TrEMBL record, chain A:
One matching Pfam family: PA26
One GO location term (cellular component): nucleus
Catalytic reaction list: a hydroperoxide + L-cysteinyl-[protein] = S-hydroxy-L-cysteinyl-[protein] + an alcohol
UniProt feature, compositional bias: Basic and acidic residues: 26-36
InterPro entries: AhpD-like, Sestrin
Record keywords, A-Z: Cytoplasm, Oxidoreductase
One GO term (biological process): cellular response to leucine starvation
Subcellular location: Cytoplasm
Organism: Hippocampus comes
Record's protein name: Sestrin 1
TrEMBL record, chain B:
Name used for this protein in its record: GATOR2 complex protein WDR24
Domain of life per record: Eukaryota
Keywords from the UniProt entry: Autophagy, Lysosome, Membrane, Metal-binding, Repeat, Transferase, Ubl conjugation pathway, WD repeat, Zinc, Zinc-finger
PANTHER family on file: GATOR COMPLEX PROTEIN WDR24 (PTHR46200:SF1)
Subcellular location: Lysosome membrane
Catalytic activity: S-ubiquitinyl-[E2 ubiquitin-conjugating enzyme]-L-cysteine + [acceptor protein]-L-lysine = [E2 ubiquitin-conjugating enzyme]-L-cysteine + N(6)-ubiquitinyl-[acceptor protein]-L-lysine
Keyword match Signal: no
Source lineage: Eukaryota, Metazoa, Chordata, Craniata, Vertebrata
Principal EC category: transferase
Chain intervals with Basic and acidic residues compositional bias: 495-513, 825-843
GO cellular component: cytosol; GATOR2 complex; lysosomal membrane
Function: Catalytic component of the GATOR2 complex, a multiprotein complex that acts as an activator of the amino acid-sensing branch of the mTORC1 signaling pathway. The GATOR2 complex indirectly activates mTORC1 through the inhibition of the GATOR1 subcomplex. GATOR2 probably acts as an E3 ubiquitin-protein ligase toward GATOR1. In the presence of abundant amino acids, the GATOR2 complex mediates ubiquitination of the NPRL2 core component of the GATOR1 complex, leading to GATOR1 inactivation. In the absence of amino acids, GATOR2 is inhibited, activating the GATOR1 complex.
Matches recorded under InterPro entries: WD40/YVTN_repeat-like_dom_sf, WD40_repeat_CS, WD40_repeat_dom_sf, WD40_rpt, WDR24
């Protein structure tokens, strides 16, 4: 199916145009093509409702022509939901209707909406957005020919989304030291490290589209030696970035004919960290597979008797809204706000001793170890992702284990603003600036609200979250009192953070729901953005420090 | 100011001396500061806080301020400052947000005096007031600046920058109450110490963080700022709006900037990342550092001039855990190493050259030229400034303009198109080609062809066809790159206009021994007389206009005259490159009936002239075997190839064929062929290139035609590859190639416009385009752009007119229609493998 997607992609291009008439023309073209396909195949005996054995994932696995048509129909279905242009959405709906009238089974989306965790009605509808978001969506659609679920969920925070998409677009499609298929392949490698099938699927398609060799997809062994060497860096960065040394960098840069150039390496590092953290976000927000990808749609008619795993996993059938359990933990928000206020006021009075401060960081570090992430319960890989990486047993290990003592990373000695930025910008111009803006955007984003309360200064909370994540990676801020974290972040929240950052594939809907119950979904997405960016920065800092050390 | 002068006198009483020296620290340094009398320096970092005495020969550790069993974070210093009035007083900024003062006069081991923990975030900078003993200012990551009175337990005032992160604070030298603060968002604010409510002035100095600022010590109201954007800017703060007066672009983000004492325009900078050197800049010369100190192995974190009135000592601390004292006399002067010559080609072939004035003035030939006229070299001189210590470099810039026409490669294109390489008897080919060369005013080439004919033809034929062709050869130079508008510009590039008696008479019918010896002698004579015959162009007696007119005269004269002519010889050599081939130009203005048996050859460049004649002289007999000439011809071909006229070499090679082929090794031949083919393709002469490939006897070349003979075609409707037949798509069952004129399927030759991708039957399209320049499909594309419309007919094999029929023919035969260079850039619509490239015609 992928190969066909690749071939047929040309036809969708016209739909991304901002010009109405060219969209109409492209749509008309597609219409004719679909209809001719339908005719070629002929109507299907609709009378046989018996679903094929595995209806969920392999729709009507008939002739190649049929599966080709199905791919097109799935794409059309995606467009009905995700295209930012109303006319295209309407036409797609009509076309699908026509096709159905001709007696061909059409797909329907599996699950509701882009996220398993967030009810569809909460998320921005593509049809109902303000002009600014609309234009961001249109840009994204024009650039990629799709509007992915990640963007839709991020649509809660259009300012950030804009910066995010710009950076991602630049990293993947604009001038850069690496060739396009390398970039997507590195994305696949990074996402596969966290077994994020969503991102892997997305980039497998992109990879083939830009002319990547399908052989590479059989596993890292099929890829060029140069990429294989990146595997080690990928592994360390994803799980234990503090173990990265300049020897690793040297190994990559001085490998005879397979060696990386510094600029290429920086590009690769930025991509790796971007996709590691994006995988965190994907799991953290329970992003659903894209409608037109595997697992995003089904051709099986809906029936009461057959519940698909996906349907159940998709929480939309449950009606326990996050506000349902309000009474149970009443006043959670108020307590949090009260604590913030206290901290604000009291900090000058009860100044902790220096030793106390030092131990607090250690304690937080140690305690973060004790936060046990829940065991995996439902993860089923839909594509064999494990072949994209080696050594699957290598995972996050707590930073401060006894035995292997790694010196604490002092952010005052190597910070993004002073050091990392300069290095990135030197080797991969403009990206430093974009990342800088993105980090700042994520860190400073606030609406001065907390749940139902307005005019709240959330900077303290945001800083606590940010620093807690860095703390898990062993990065210490001299000027931060880590006692604040304990005051502000409760246990369930810590579990969520830790799971999401360290082993995102284990994130569950329950975890998502059990923290900050009174908060809005948009606020939880906001938290996810913070987590994602903090994680990315932490990984980047380690990688860039290693590179700097190599260079000096 | 009184105090300042007192300090000065103090200095004079005990003059500083020392040498470049360093000492190892235990840990990386973050900042350093010196005490007022320049005898001690304090080094502070995360794990170090020590005072060193500066002695004549070395640093001596005086005091370790980092005491206590388990040093607290208060000792992790981001910045340190030694009070310039009170020699026992120091202040440090801690990474945890504490501001600490130290009193060296304390008797106990722990010298800590005061501890202020008012800042919430890392304190980036502390600064004592230059004249007030108890006033200390701090700037922190939390966006606040605080002013402390050291007699009190807490700050006396807090200044809010209303933005993130204060990176530097500096009291003004000029105004008692003013201080400057620089911010992470690129702003610089000026504050009045008495008014904590609002800044006096704010301006954006850099994009991205401003890491540092420094007031000019000579109270001029100048403020230098350095930022992450790799710039150092100098601002004049005395005006209403801060005005940027100087800007220095460095190669890395600027971490510290310090004005150099006693040198009004000098400042020192160091970087935070990647670059480990310390630079001293003259802000008026922003392109090259005045001096560089390259000792450090890791980034330099702190720089300070040892004494505020002594410009020759610089101290620096670094992440590499060393503390250095740099002597100015030991600094590297990048300007000495800089290459003062520059050479650059302009878009249209103009050449600009800058070189040291001294080099140029050594050339006596240079004449002064009036300024303003841009045809002449423009000289830039900097007035020597007595106060400036820059090595005096002045260079002269010369611009050589090239005349568009002179640089044209028309002759190449025309020659390539008109030459006949095969299909006729050898003699005819030679004659034809000689004629072509002659018409293009390339006498030497023409002569060469004629000689080739003579050498390799049956002697009987010579008489019949010979004399007619060797006549009236043009006088134009072969390939003058430049038209010598600016000569004597002083590059030592002596350009001469040589005026030679062009009494060249060459007999081509019977080369009799005596004539040839004559010839030989003549040769030498001319060589000897070359010097006398040259005129300096620099005398300006000849302008380029004159030149042209003279050439014109010559031509016109030539056409009617029958007598030996004077001809002008242009020569233009680049002195720097003595081995470069010189143009050999022969002037002939002779008519056969006058010349008779005499043969005189004038060679301007005897070394490379035809040795042919002289060598052949003693051995020549009328029935000399052709193989006898082979070594000479080989040399001749090599000569042309060397000279850059690979066209001649290859053409002759092809025409001579077996006669010469074995004489030249295959590798050389292949090299020539590939060069020529490459050239032809660059000029989009696909057909000629095909012909050359076909005619070549070189295996590696002929096989070029066997490669990439496959064309992949995509259906114009569904954009999928078409596999079996070229005109119908298997997938969408539609005919892909429909003639835009007759709307029938094209099964044979398909011609299409690369602009709009429409096309059709060759015949139809040709007919259509005769009547209309627009696309027959009605897409509105102008398939024949207006510039080409003037071309009379589609069929002329002219470069301006499209050689369509031939193109179709040739490409068809070769089965190779696509230029590999273009292939990748084309759209997907590559069609029938026999398709004709209208491209060549239409673009």
């Amino acid at each position: 199916m992928d190969a066909q997607d690749q071939e047929t992609l040309g036809r969708w291009d016209g739909l991304a145009s901002r010009d109405t008439s060219s969209r109409t023309a492209a749509m008309e073209h597609i219409r004719q093509e679909v209809l001719s396909k339908v005719e070629a195949i002929g109507p299907e005996p609709t009378s046989s409702p018996s679903p094929s054995p595995s209806p969920c994932l392999s729709p009507a696995s008939g002739s190649p022509a049929r599966s080709d048509l199905n791919a097109v129909l799935a794409h059309l279905l995606m467009l009905t939901k995700r295209c930012p242009f109303e006319d295209v959405r309407e036409r797609c709906v009509r076309l699908l209707q026509t096709v159905q009238d001709l007696g061909v089974r059409i797909p329907r989306p599996l699950g509701n909406g882009p996220s398993r965790f967030i009810p569809e009605k909460e998320i921005l509808q593509v049809s109902k957005v303000d002009t600014r978001t609309q234009s961001i969506f249109e840009d994204a659609f024009a650039a990629l020919g799709r509007l992915d679920n990640i963007s839709l969920v991020m649509g809660f925070h259009p300012q950030y989304l804009e910066s995010f998409l710009r950076t991602q677009h630049y990293l993947l499609q604009m001038d850069g030291p690496l060739s396009l298929h390398y970039r997507h392949y590195i994305g696949i490698m990074a996402a596969a490290r966290h077994q994020c099938s969503y991102l892997v699927n997305l980039h497998v398609n992109d990879f083939l589209q830009v002319g990547g060799d399908p052989k590479w997809l059989n596993g890292l062994d099929g890829a060029p030696r140069k990429l294989q060497q990146l595997g080690e860096l990928n592994k360390i960065l994803a799980h234990r970035p503090w173990l990265l040394t300049k020897e690793h960098i040297e190994g990559l840069l001085k490998a005879e004919e397979h060696s990386w150039s510094l600029a290429e390496l920086i590009h690769a590092v930025v991509l790796l960290t971007h996709y590691h953290s994006l995988a965190s976000f994907t799991f953290g927000c329970g992003i659903m597979p894209e409608i037109h990808c595997d697992g995003g749609h089904t051709f099986r008619p809906p029936s009461v008797g057959h519940y698909c795993v996906c349907d159940i996993a998709n929480g939309n059938n449950h009606h326990d809204s996050p506000f349902g359990s309000q009474e149970v933990c009443g006043g959670e928000v108020e307590v949090l706000m009260e604590r913030m206020k206290q901290l604000q006021e009291c900090r000058d009075d009860e100044e902790a001793s220096q030793e106390e401060m030092a131990t607090r960081f250690e304690r937080e570090k140690t305690e973060s170890m004790l936060v046990v992430t829940a065991e995996d319960e439902e993860w089923v890989p839909s594509r064999d992702i494990s072949r994209h990486f080696e050594d699957p047993s290598y995972g996050y290990k707590d930073f401060s284990r006894r035995g292997e003592h790694v010196p604490t990373f002092r952010v005052q000695d190597y910070s993004w603003e002073d050091h990392g930025y300069s290095l990135v910008n030197r080797l991969y111009p403009d990206v430093g600036q974009m990342l800088d803006e993105k980090f700042q955007m994520a860190y400073n984003l606030t609406y001065n609200t907390m749940a139902t309360h307005k005019d709240v200064d959330t900077s303290m909370l945001r800083r606590a979250i940010w620093n807690y994540i860095h703390c898990m990676f062993g990065i210490r801020y001299d000027d931060y009192d880590y006692g604040e974290i304990n005051q502000l972040l409760d246990r369930s929240f810590k579990i969520y953070i830790k799971t999401m950052v360290c082993s995102p594939e284990k994130t569950t809907k329950r975890m998502y729901e059990s923290f900050w119950r009174q908060f809005q979904h948009s606020e939880k997405v906001h938290v996810n953005l913070l987590l994602m960016e903090a994680r990315m920065q932490a990984e980047l800092l380690y990688a860039l420090r290693a590179i700097t050390r190599y260079m000096t | 100011m009184e105090k300042m002068s007192r300090v000065t006198t103090a200095l004079s009483s005990s003059a500083i001396s020392g040498r470049t020296m360093f000492c190892h620290l235990d840990a990386p340094a973050n900042a350093i500061s010196v005490c007022r009398d320049a005898t001690q320096v304090v080094v502070a970092g995360r794990n170090i806080f020590k005072i060193y005495a500066l002695e004549e020969e070395q640093f001596v550790e005086k005091l370790n301020l980092r005491v206590g069993r388990k040093p607290s974070l208060n000792l992790s210093c981001a910045d340190v400052m030694w009070h310039q009035m009170e020699e026992n007083l120091l202040a440090t900024a801690a990474t945890n947000g504490a501001v600490v003062t130290w009193n060296l006069g304390k008797p106990s081991r722990n010298k800590q005096d005061q501890l202020f923990t008012e800042h919430k975030r890392t304190v980036n900078k502390v600064c004592f007031h230059p004249t007030e003993v108890y006033m200390l200012l701090s700037g922190s990551q939390d966006g606040f600046m605080k002013c402390f009175d050291l007699r009190k337990k807490e700050s006396v005032s807090t200044f809010s920058g209303q933005s993130e992160s204060v990176r530097d604070v500096q009291f003004s030298m000029k105004d008692y109450f003013t201080f400057a603060a620089s911010f992470e968002n690129g702003n610089v604010q000026l504050w009045d110490i008495r008014r904590p409510d609002r800044y006096e002035r704010m301006f954006t100095a850099h994009t991205g963080p401003v890491f540092c600022c420094d007031w000019h010590p000579d109270d001029r109201g100048w403020l230098a700022t350095g930022g992450r954007d790799k710039m150092v800017k100098v601002w004049d703060m005395t005006t209403n709006r801060a005005k940027e007066i100087y800007c220095v672009q460095t190669i890395a983000s600027v971490a510290r900037v310090k004005w150099r004492p006693e040198r009004k325009f000098h400042l020192a900078t160091c970087s935070m990342m990647v670059d480990h050197n310390i630079y001293v800049w003259d802000v008026r010369r922003p392109f090259i550092p005045f001096a560089t100190f390259e000792e450090h192995k890791d980034v330099t974190t702190g720089i300070v001039w040892r004494h505020q009135h002594e410009p020759h000592f610089l101290l620096s601390g670094s992440k590499d855990s060393t503390l250095y004292q740099h002597m100015f006399k030991d600094a590297t002067r990048p300007v000495d190493k800089a290459n003062p010559e520059g050479l650059c080609f302009g878009l249209f072939g103009d050449l600009a050259f800058a070189a040291k004035e001294s080099l140029i003035s050594g050339d006596a030939n240079r004449k002064p030229y009036p300024g303003g006229d841009r045809r002449y070299p423009i000289f830039f001189f900097k007035k020597p400034d007595p106060t400036e210590q820059f090595a005096h470099v002045s260079s002269a810039l010369s611009v050589f303009e090239t005349d568009l026409d002179s640089n044209r490669m028309d002759w190449f294109v025309r020659t390539a198109q008109l030459y006949l390489l095969g299909g006729k008897p050898f003699a005819e080919l030679c004659d034809h080609n000689a004629e072509v060369a002659r018409e293009l005013k390339r006498p030497q080439v023409s002569t060469t062809w004629t000689m080739l004919r003579i050498m390799f033809s049956d002697p009987a034929n010579i008489a019949t066809s010979g004399p007619n062709h060797l006549s009236k050869l043009g006088t134009l130079p072969l390939m003058n790159s430049f038209n010598l508008k600016e000569i004597g510009s002083g590059i030592g590039n002596e350009s001469r206009l040589e005026r030679n008696k062009g009494d060249i008479r060459q007999d081509n019918v019977h080369l009799e021994p005596e004539n040839i010896s004559n010839n030989n002698e003549e040769n030498e004579e001319t060589e000897g007389s070359e010097g006398q015959a040259e005129y300096m162009f620099g005398d300006a007696e000849l302008d380029d206009d004159d030149l042209y007119s003279m050439e014109h005269d010559n031509q016109t004269e030539e056409q009617e005259c029958t007598l030996p002519q004077e001809a002008f010889q242009l020569r233009h050599d680049i002195l720097d490159n003595p081995s470069a081939p010189e143009h050999l130009q022969q002037d002939k203005a002779d008519s056969p009936h006058v010349s008779g048996n005499e043969a005189e050859v004038t060679c301007l460049t005897p070394i490379e002239s035809f040795s042919l004649i002289s060598i052949s002289q003693p051995l020549f007999t009328p029935d000399l075997p052709a193989s006898f000439f082979c070594p000479i011809v080989r040399e001749m071909l090599s000569y042309y190839a060397e000279k850059g006229d690979v066209q001649m070499a290859v053409s002759a090679l092809i025409v001579l064929g077996e006669r010469i082929r074995k004489e030249i090794d295959d590798l050389t031949q292949e090299h020539w062929y590939t060069s020529y083919i490459d050239l032809l393709q660059r000029f989009e002469l696909w057909n000629v290139s095909n012909e050359v490939i076909k005619l070549s006897t070189c295996g590696a070349i002929t096989c070029l035609n066997q490669t990439s003979t496959t064309l992949h075609i995509n259906c114009s409707n569904c954009k999928r590859p078409m596999n079996s037949r070229g005109w119908i798509c298997d997938r969408c069952h539609q005919c892909a190639s429909v003639c835009a004129v007759c709307h029938h399927v094209v099964k044979g030759l398909f011609v299409w416009c690369q602009g709009c991708s429409h096309g059709g039957h060759l015949e139809h399209i040709i007919n259509w385009l005769k009547s209309s320049p627009h696309c027959p499909a009605g897409c509105g594309h102008l398939c024949i752009p207006p510039s080409r419309r003037a071309a009379p007919s589609l069929a002329t094999p002219d470069s301006a007119g499209p050689p369509l029929p031939r193109s179709a023919d040739a490409d068809h035969k070769q089965g190779r229609a696509v230029n590999p260079k273009k292939k990748s850039g084309q759209r997907e619509s590559q069609r029938d493998e026999r398709a004709v490239r209208l491209h060549e015609v239409l673009t």
